[in-house]
Structure formats: structure tokens, C-alpha cells
Amino acid sequence: MMSPRTLLSAWNLRAKKQLGQNFLADPSTAEMIVTRSQIVPGDIVLEIGAGLGALTIPAARVAQKVYAVDRDPRMIRLLKTELLANRLSNVRVIEENILKVDIEALAEDDHRQLVVMGNLPYNISSQILVQLIQSRKVVDRAILMFQKELAQRITAPPGCRDYGRLTAMLRYCSDIRRLANVGASLFFPRPKVDSEVIEVKFKDILEHPADNEDFLFKTIKAAFGQRRKTLRNALAGSALRPDNKTVATALKDAGIDSSRRAETLETEEFVRLSNCLGRILENLQE
Q: How much is the pTM?
């Protein structure tokens, strides 16, 4: 492929900052990411933010099929031309905001789990991860590139300042590992920070399944909603609206000290807490 700078100039286009468009400009890095993603010929790939095709093209040369999603119609036209030039016919280009794409419907078309890839724009990275968690029954794994700061939060262990709601949700249902660092100089336009590629491998069997997964995620959100407060105060002041006595009882039943903060809880403890709190609230409603 031509460089992003050359391609955009040839088409009289500019990257849109509001869409988080920083295009990978180093073909060897793109090949490395696809290789470390361990894509095999039978895989169906869903790419988020295909852009100019830096990852689309090497992925399509290996995978059975690639769904290339991008919301920018200018890039869609350019991408389709690049795919034709590379004689790739196994890519279905979808012009849409990924948050509006029915991921489960795509997987059902092929009767196979998806491998998700993408260089995610910072402003909707968290929303995309939540979307993937909700759709994980049809997603085997996701290989995603994030800005360094967000990557550190996603991979942070309990007890760390960076550990938060999203990390806790991911640790419940997936294994996370770092795949590669990608310097800012390898993108055009050059972003202000480096990036990191992370693999999120969704678990087939949960180690500590919650009684009610939706309520678990609400409990995690409530616990981190006021992260400087103790668990007791954060939960009592949350959208779940339990009274102080209910929160105290749930924490005691779960074997968790009420003076602890959300960032100190392991996955199993969040599950125990949500199970206990959920049961108490259910009984109160009967």
C-alpha cells in the first residue's frame, strides 16, 4: 500500500480529528499485529474502524472473511479501491458506526464466532468494550489498539490506581494480555501519545459466574461511581439506592470489609457482593 499521507493527498482528503483518525503508516507493524493475532484461514474477522485498510488487507490475506466497518464515507470509497487493487474479494465493507452494528447478527450469518480487530478511537473505546462484553457469546477474542493511557487502565490489577469499572468487567469474563507497543511515530497524522495492542480473550467458562450478570455490572458501576468513598458509602449513594442497613448486611454476607474501596476488590469479591446485594433487594421487593 501507499503511505497514508500519499493516499490522502491523492484523494484530496484529510484525517478527521473528531473521528479519531490516526492511520497506521508502517506495513511491517500491521503485519506483526495480524501475525500476533493468530488469525487462521477459517477465521471470520470483524474490523472496527478499517480506515485506509492497513490492517484490513493483511488480515484478509489470511482470514476466510473480513467485515470492515467504518463510519466515514470518504474512507469507504478509498478502502474499496484499495481492496480492488489488491484483488481481495473476501472483504465486506460496512459503512456504519460500530456502536450501531448488530455484532450477533453478523456472526449468525457465518455460524461462527468472530475475531475482532481495530485501532479504536479514544472517545468511544470504553463503549466499544462494553458492546463486545455484551456480545461475547459470538466473539472469541478481540485484538485492539488503544492509546497507552487507556491500555494501562484496561490491564491494571486490583489495588492499582488505574483499576476501574471497565477493568473489573473485563476480568470477570475475559483474559487480557499485552501483544505489542506501537509508537506514535508509526501513525499519520502523528498522535500525541504511543499506543498499545491488547488481546481480550473471552472465557468459555466463567470461574465465578454471577447470579445475575446485569446486576453484577450495575454493582461494579455503583462501586466505582464514587471511587474515593468506601464501598459502604459509594453503594448507598448510588443509582441502586439501597439503604445503609442493606449495604452493610450485603457486605457482611459477602465477607467484605465495608471500609474498603472498589479498586481493592478481586473479581470473585465483586461477584459475591452483587449476589448478596441482589438477593437482599429481591427479598425486600417481595
A: 0.93
Q: Where are the domains of the chain?
A: 4-202, 213-285
The DSSP result for 195-216, as a single string, is EEEEEEEE-SS-SS--S-HHHH
CA pair distance 6, 24, nearest whole angstrom? 13
Closest CA to 182 of 31, 4, 285: 31
Torsion of CA 211, 128, 50, 162, to 10 degrees: -110
For residues 24 and 190, is the Cβ–Cβ distance under 8 A?
no
Q: What is the CA radius of gyration of the chain?
A: 21
Cα separation, 135 vs 123, in Å, equals 20
Q: Where are the beta strands (DSSP E) in 43-194?
A: 44-48, 65-70, 91-95, 114-119, 139-147, 174-182, 187-188
Q: What is the mean pLDDT of residues 218-237?
A: 93
Residue 103: predicted pLDDT = 96
Class of domain 4-202: alpha beta
For 213-285, CATH gives 1.10.8.100
**Contact by Cβ (8 Å): 188, 23:** yes
- The arithmetic mean of pLDDT across residues 206-225, rounded, is 96
In tens, the pLDDT along 55-70 reads 999 999 999 999 999 9
Residue 189: cis peptide before it, omega within 30 degrees of 0: yes
- pLDDT tens column, 236-272: 989 898 899 999 999 999 999 999 999 999 999 999 9
